[in-house]
Amino acid sequence: MKTPVKRKIVLIDSSLQSRLLFAFLLLEMLLIGGGMIVMHLELKDVVEENLFRIHLAISESLSSLLIWKAMRILAMLAILNVVALGLAKWLWVQHLKSILKPLSELLSRTARLDFKADNVVGHHHAVLANTLAWRECERQRCMAIRAALSGLDENACNSSTTALEKTRVALEKIKTLLPENQR
Question: Which of 58, 131, 151, 162 could disulfide-link 170, Cβ–Cβ 3.0 to 4.6 Å?
């Protein structure tokens, strides 16, 4: 029986997830607490209005009045939840944009082999830190390729065997610097 493969890359940021969960619980407690206070005030008024009406003809059923008040409060809570979810989505999109915009810029600069100073990054995130480290490795690799290319002699084909050997060594060094799929 095969053992299950465990992921090596963790895709969940537990600190972010715990902060979001705490904010959600706090928001729900505030909404439910506020709803209970409003319900208490609304129902208190209904009960007080109808407390001494036992001998009078009731124009409207007390239960339908209570249900109507409760439905209004539930609708208010639902609307506030939708607004809170919309705000949470907007904040999350802004957070993602603050990571993806610099990442996209770094990757496009890397594609152009532009390894100038990386002052693009304004938001500190592990993805951006990994990208900066990778860019530094790529910059070092490109500098090594450039150094190996400068060791090539343009007229090596017409030269002696030592010049050809020197060119072969430089080309082997360049070959080791290239990624596996480009050799």
Answer: 151
Closest CA to 65 of 77, 48, 81: 48
Per-residue tokens: 43: 């129902």
Under 8 Å between Cβ of 151 and 168: no
- In sequence order, the 6+-apart residues with CB closer than 8 A to the CB of 153 are 159, 163, 166, 167
> Residue 128 class from Cβ within 10 Å (0-12 exposed, 13-18 middle, 19+ buried)?
buried
Place of tokens 């493969």: 5
Alpha helices by DSSP H, listed for the chain, are 14-51, 62-111, 126-150, 161-177
Containing H/E element for 87?
A: helix 62-111
- Count CA atoms within 13 Å of residue 114 on its CB side: 11
Each residue's pLDDT tens digit, 10-59: 556 677 778 888 888 898 899 889 888 988 888 887 777 777 666 655 56
Q: Which residue has the tokens 């860019």?
A: 135
Q: Are 88 and 80 in contact (CB under 8 A)?
A: no
pLDDT 10s digits, 162-180: 777 777 777 777 777 776 6
Amino acid letter, residue 123: H
